[in-house]
Amino acid sequence: MEKMSRVTTALGSNTISGRTMFCHLDAPANAISVCRDATQVVVAGRNIFKIYALEEEQFVEKLNLRVGRKPSLNFSCADVMWHQMEENLLATAATNGAVVTWNLGKPSRNKQDQLFTEHKRTVNKVCFHPTEVYMLLSGSQDGFMKCFDLRKKESVSTFSGQSESVRDVQFSMKDYFTFAASFENGNVQLWDIRRPDRYERMFTAHTGPVFCCDWHPDDRGWLATGGRDKMVKVWDMTTNKAKEIYCVQTIASVARVKWRPERKHHLATCSMMVDHNIYVWDVRRPFIPFATFEEHKDVTTGIVWRHQHDPHFLLSGSKDSTLYQHMFKDATRPVDKANPEGLCFGLFGDLAFAAKESLINSDANRKPYPGGDRRYPIFFFKKADPTEQFTHVSSVLNVFGTDLESNRMDWFVRTAQLYLLSGKPFAELCDHNAKVARELKRPRVSTTWTMLRIMFSDPANLTAPGLNHSHSKLGNLPLMNSFSMKDMGTGMGAEGRLERSKGELRQDNMHLEPGNLHINNNNEENEETEGSEGQAEYMFGDAELDDDDLYSMEHDNQMEEQEYILPPEAFPLRHEIIDNPSAPEHLQQDKADSPHVSGNEAEVMCLTPIESFSLISISQPLFSPHLPASFFCPIVREMLSYYAEQGDVQMAVSVLIVLGDRIRKEIDDLTQEHWYMSYIDLLQRFELWNVSNEVIKLSTCSAITCLNQTSTTLHINCSSCKRAMSNKGWICNKCHQCASVCAVCHHVVKGLFVWCQGCSHGGHLEHIMNWLKISAHCPAGCGHL
């Protein structure tokens, strides 16, 4: 693994030389720091705290700071920093909330100097002032930052960010009194150490926790931040409002960021999880790393440039229990393997294609795409810069537009707003969602909801409400199929006709007695008239029927009882037909008078299937009519995967919630979490906050349900003195004024309170709404819009 390239750098009186090398550690490292003269490096972790000498050929262990038979938790380090002014001074952040300083000049084996235990939770970061020897700053999981004077036994200032835990603190390299702090709620705050009561500036830097920040060593106003949103952003802090000037998209959460010495636009990053590599980016080209170090086999936890004026050596520690010195000359250059063509879809479906100009011009058969101005190629050309480190290539970007109407997402918003995911029986939820999809012209989704209702509902409840059923002794027979008696049209062929012949009799299967049935034998009234909505029930069976098994139909005009004989059928059946009772009288209309029916055609009857109405019952079914829900689970699982792969995570998540435990165990937790996160992200992009919160609440994934349980603490400032409210009443303990006074009626607001985040004035919701109808200015008279 060792590479034999060597570099020698002259820095004043010091000379740095070496090669790419590594050494094995006793335990995983959490942080590393290098001394001022770049000759030693300290490695700290939960079970390691050692100092190594950086020699030309190898690392040499110089000192083990974990002494004693049973080292205390003060040796369990989350962060470490070596003072750049005092070569014998170290500081560590302990996982038990302690801040410890170490004096390497002490003659005893135990080098611990001072111990500060003012933090209540884990300390995430410690930072020495770049020019002040005795000033130490710490940031903790408890949300507080403390400034220590090492000549005293306690902190001299406490800074409360009124926010979630502090993940990083960094003193400015150019402004003596300024430091930056990053928080888990996505905010970055700038503080003046002389004013611990209130931050100087605050802005939202990332969506999610901000894990790290670093001031530029040369440019006074540049601050780099990295967060869980996989972004590295560079902010210009010299303006009145923090301005994002560069943004780098990485492939994983950013855990550490460090500016490269002597290179204004270069910075190094490492990931908190998944990605083990170290990347050096040129922020002017954020789409591909400038250089990559791929030596580590596990997550990189700490990176530091060996010398503050040397850009050629980078040190790193990792969870794979190795310490590396990377030489920049040995780094991998991803641009050498990069694809020179690019293809990307825009937000509204536009397709952009970029390629070398020589490739585009060589295609003589290429024709311009017809259409509007957006479809014409856009040419980008940049003048050659002798200081540019990138290869100059002239490229052509073609943008092909699409019809905006065909890519509208109105259906997504309407579906999210109208879908019902809970609160009603399963069948009603499926029917409602199917209706919503049908009204939005999404027949496939509508059919899917209908099929889910059929698969997982109780068969006894499948019939649509409002239909008349036969309440006979055979009413408990299983539902097998549905038919309706419909009038025969002129266009129907002989294949659809069932002729009843009275000349043929099957006496061997018939056991009917005249007294068992009331039949109207008027052949002219055996069928419905055209347009009739009447329906008839027919019972077929393959066994003998007793008198009790037959049902009687009573009508207003009963004629004399006659024996009814079933003729042979016109089409083959799977089982033998035994009997067929006569149709009810209200279906026996005068068909002979119809212009479409004449002669024997009056005796023709057509059976047409219709949905959800039982007409045929099997007295002795040949198979079990009810399949368990588990039988359909593999099919449903494949269906959900299909919808998710097609990009319709809305359907996948909605079905997952509605089916609940019926299907949840069939899909692994990681897949479910991915679907939920994708759907919630889409909902929040469309500002469907209520729907998003409902989906989070109905989820059973622990990683999802905790999303609406974070950042629930609301910190309130007094509208008079602008200071934080520390008590629970309506009176500020600093200025002794009522903090929640309505700016319209000037009474104390004891219920719902709405306020402006810019000027902190507010009042009763109804009063403020009425005021804003007539004026855009703050009702308190402060002039804020």
Automatic annotation (TrEMBL):
- Places the protein is found: Lysosome membrane
**TM region(s), chain numbering:** none
| Molecular function GO labels | ubiquitin protein ligase activity; zinc ion binding
**Enzyme nomenclature, EC number:** 2.3.2.27
Q: In which pathway does it act?
A: Protein modification; protein ubiquitination
Q: What is its main location?
A: membrane
What's a Pfam family this protein contains?
WD40
Start-end of the WD repeats? 116-158, 203-245
Q: Which UniProt keywords apply?
A: Autophagy, Lysosome, Membrane, Metal-binding, Repeat, Transferase, Ubl conjugation pathway, WD repeat, Zinc, Zinc-finger
Name the coiled-coil region(s): none
For this record, the Gene Ontology CC terms, alphabetical, are: cytosol; GATOR2 complex; lysosomal membrane
User: Might you name a Gene Ontology BP term for this protein?
Assistant: positive regulation of TORC1 signaling
Q: Which reaction does it catalyse?
A: S-ubiquitinyl-[E2 ubiquitin-conjugating enzyme]-L-cysteine + [acceptor protein]-L-lysine = [E2 ubiquitin-conjugating enzyme]-L-cysteine + N(6)-ubiquitinyl-[acceptor protein]-L-lysine
What is this protein's function per UniProt? Catalytic component of the GATOR2 complex, a multiprotein complex that acts as an activator of the amino acid-sensing branch of the mTORC1 signaling pathway. The GATOR2 complex indirectly activates mTORC1 through the inhibition of the GATOR1 subcomplex. GATOR2 probably acts as an E3 ubiquitin-protein ligase toward GATOR1. In the presence of abundant amino acids, the GATOR2 complex mediates ubiquitination of the NPRL2 core component of the GATOR1 complex, leading to GATOR1 inactivation. In the absence of amino acids, GATOR2 is inhibited, activating the GATOR1 complex.
Family per similarity comment: Belongs to the WD repeat WDR24 family.
Q: What is this protein called?
A: GATOR2 complex protein WDR24
